[in-house]
Design brief:
By secondary structure, this protein is α+β, with helices and mostly antiparallel strands. Helices cover 50% and strands 20% of the residues. Helix 12 runs antiparallel to helix 13. An 8-stranded mixed beta barrel has the order 17-18-20-21-22-23-24-25, surrounded by 4 helices. The radius of gyration is 35 Å and the shape is elongated. Strand 7 and strand 8 form a beta hairpin. The relative contact order is 0.05.
Length: 745
């Protein structure tokens, strides 16, 4: 040791400095080489992560369209006339809702019916077999067509599904066209500062679509494999490897020669045989490496200080890029909280590492689309942020959550006692109601919440989320219950509801719904003054399905609006028949459900039906429940005013069982108030006093009163004594078919 120290002392200072410099330069060069390799790998990792992100976006977009097409196929196959105007109208509406160019049906004889003209005209395509080869072989497919032959426009993506009859034989093809530019918008991301681009191809290498920044190749061929081999023969072995991976449905990264050296990540899209390619020039990585080497020489001159500065700069840039990538992938752009992808990552960690009991909660907002339609997307996004903040403030450290999409939030809460879940949910509901009171005028923000308590830590996220969704669906669009727990029999109940929903649609198509008419009588003169139309569902065997069984489900799934329209036209048609017979036309009231108040466009449709049957607004009355007015007061006022200005009478149904205020009833300015049967049945002194009070309220604000469910002479005499205007009930007449009601005219 002493000898070594002695030798070092003999070395001049300049020698020591040179040795130190050589040592530093060597360390820096070794480190730089190692760093360049790491940097290259990081870029390749980022390429893979970006490809994954692109994949998830494009997969989600195409999968949503494919799933919708499958759902459409399920009901189109059962339709006697697949291209009926009603079917094509539905398909046209769906096409607009999900941003498709068109939806169409192809028959085996190559006739094509499309939503462009609602199936009124067929189009003949002689090369159907080329573009729908898989569907003709009983498979779903996604194909690119360079020219839309239906309207002679540009390139389109065609998604097709075979349609079969009950014997499993091909009866046609359901297809949807998706504008290439629309899908391209999802692919046009800022990949590696705009230098990278994406391509979607099939397993044969045929290009379907490219992002806007993709290089244009001087080739008439649309095949990726062929073009890469043609441009540079050195790509042949690489392309063969890529073909093998594609055939085996594998992912990979290759380096190939185009006009310059490039890196390409290829991944199966998970739909049909499609692959997504993400491409970046190799010089992006090389340029970074060259900059690093120049910095290395500078560091050699500047020694350790310059080295420290450069290294800190590199570390900072890496962290910034990582944060940027995490922001893209893991931050929800609307709320600023976790994205759903980040939620899933955190969920996996917490599922194993947290020993407390766990519950999965799904929360969404009823009729959220209505908020966007009325108040605009800015207000809609404010509501989403408010709800996110409410969940955040109440959940604190007791769980994780994220907005999944639209107005749907996924929440995992940790608890020791189930009361903690109820306390959390009740507080969230209460706070959401405050959002309504403070900022949203008279519009109520109503959540639907489904809760599933995990039985163990090994349950799959898809399954527990499905359980929570099932629970939330049981109380969707109800205004007296805001949350529900999953229980074992719930799945069978959901299936039963689905079967009933299908039966309702079938009943509408088969015209199995018929109106019954319950007459209304002037309380003093006992003369008939009109009737209420009540829906009856008569099955083929002559039996009836109780409205109590199907009306709540129709309201829950949104079919009630179609039933309303069906009944309106049925009543108008019957009024017209009586009118042509020379019978007296008395006003008949029909229900106007909550769904109709979402869109005033129904008024034009109803007026057209009224004109079709040569009737006037005075011949039809609309009944709106008190509960509907309470939940949708702002919209209700506008639509009711429009209907009254057109000449329709408005009746407030079920008065006394809802939540409305007297001032609201006054502002609605309805024509008649229908006293609910529960008041009429209460013959106690207190009950009679309340009924009398309701009649007097109507008198004060200038409305007539209609007593529903009057069944006894005592009830009738009491109502007559207290100046009730109109009587409806079994005491005078029960609901009856049109032929029996006709005798009263």
């Amino acid at each position: 040791m002493g000898k070594i120290q002695s030798k070092l002392n003999k070395i001049p200072l300049i020698g020591k400095i040179i040795m130190l410099l050589l040592f530093i330069v060597t360390i820096i060069l070794i480190y730089s080489e190692s760093l360049s390799t790491t940097l290259k790998q990081n870029y390749l990792n980022q390429l893979t992560e970006t490809a994954n992100y692109n994949n998830s976006i494009i997969h989600g977009e195409l999968k949503d369209k494919q799933t919708t097409l499958q759902q459409i196929a399920s009901f189109i196959e059962d339709s006697p006339n697949m291209v009926s105007r009603e079917n094509m109208q539905k398909l046209s509406e769906i096409s607009k809702q999900i941003n498709l160019k068109r939806i169409g049906i192809i028959y085996p004889d190559k006739r094509v019916f499309v939503t462009d003209n609602l199936g009124q005209q067929s189009i003949y395509l002689d090369d159907i077999g080329i573009f729908f080869e898989k569907s003709l072989k009983d498979k779903e497919s996604i194909t690119r067509i360079e020219k839309d032959k239906i309207d002679d426009s540009g390139a389109i993506i065609v998604m097709s599904i075979p349609l079969k009859n009950n014997n499993g034989e091909l009866k046609g093809i359901l297809f949807a066209t998706y504008d290439v530019n629309t899908l391209r918008n999802f692919m046009t991301l800022d990949i590696f500062n705009g230098k990278g681009y994406s391509i979607i191809m099939n397993s044969k290498g045929e290009k379907l679509i490219t992002s806007l920044t993709a290089l244009k190749l001087d080739s008439e061929s649309n095949n990726i494999f062929y073009n890469l081999e043609r441009i540079n023969s050195s790509n042949k072995d690489i392309i063969e490897r890529m073909k093998a991976d594609v055939e085996a449905n594998k992912s990979g990264i290759i380096q190939f020669n185009l006009y310059e050296k490039m890196y390409m990540s290829y991944q199966p899209l998970g739909i049909d045989d499609l692959y997504i390619l993400t491409v970046i020039p190799k010089n992006i990585i090389e340029n970074q490496y060259n900059i690093l080497m120049k910095s290395t020489y500078f560091l050699c001159i500047g020694l350790s200080v310059a080295l420290f500065i450069i290294m800190m700069n590199i570390i900072f840039n890496e962290k910034r890029k990582k944060r940027l990538l995490e922001n893209i992938t893991y931050v929800d752009k609307v709320t600023g909280g976790y994205s759903y992808e980040k939620f899933l990552l955190e969920y996996k960690k917490k599922q194993k590492n947290n020993n407390r009991k766990k519950a999965f909660i799904i929360l969404d907002i009823d009729n959220f689309k209505l908020i966007n339609d009325i108040f605009g997307y800015n207000i809609g996004n404010m509501v989403l942020k408010d709800v996110w903040k409410i969940i955040y403030d109440n959940l604190k450290q007791n769980g994780i959550f994220a907005r999944k999409y639209a107005d749907k939030y996924s929440i995992m809460i940790f608890f020791d006692k189930e009361e903690e879940i109820i306390e959390f949910v009740d507080k969230v509901i209460k706070d959401i109601e405050q959002v309504n009171i403070i900022k949203r005028e008279k519009f109520r923000i109503v959540p639907s919440i489904g809760i599933y308590i995990l039985e163990n830590n090994d349950e799959k996220i898809d399954q527990i989320e499905n359980y929570a969704i099932m629970a939330s669906r049981t109380i969707k669009n109800r205004y007296d219950v805001y949350y529900s727990f999953y229980y074992n029999k719930l799945e069978s109940i959901i299936i039963e509801k689905k079967n009933m929903t299908d039966s309702i649609y079938q009943a509408l198509e088969n015209k199995s719904f018929i109106p019954y008419f319950q007459p209304k009588f002037d309380a003093k003169t006992k003369k008939i003054v009109g009737a209420e139309a009540l829906i009856r569902w008569q099955k083929e065997d002559g039996s009836f399905v109780s409205p109590a069984k199907f009306i709540p489900i129709a309201e829950e799934v949104g079919i009630i609006a179609e039933i309303d329209k069906y009944m309106f036209e049925a009543v108008c048609k019957q009024q017209y028949i009586w009118k042509t017979k020379g019978l007296k036309i008395l006003p008949i009231s029909v229900n106007l459900s909550r769904n109709k108040l979402y869109n005033a466009n129904f008024i034009d449709e109803y007026m057209s039906i009224l004109s079709k049957y040569k009737l006037e607004p005075k011949d039809i009355q609309f009944e709106i429940t008190e509960g509907t007015l309470y939940t949708e007061e702002k919209i209700g006022e506008k639509i009711i005013m429009t209907l009254k200005n057109l000449g329709f009478d408005i009746l407030i149904d079920d008065f006394g069982v809802g939540y409305s205020s007297i001032s609201m009833i006054r502002d609605i300015n309805a024509t008649e108030m229908k006293i609910d049967k529960s008041f009429i049945d209460d013959t106690s002194e207190r009950g009679k006093a309340l009924t009398n009070y309701v009649i007097k309220i109507a008198e004060v604000i200038g409305m007539k009163t209609v007593a529903e469910g009057v069944e006894t002479k005592e009830q009738y005499e009491f109502l007559l004594k207290h100046n009730c205007d109109i009587i409806q009930g079994y005491y005078f007449a029960k609901p009856m078919p049109a032929k029996e009601y006709e005798k009263f005219l």
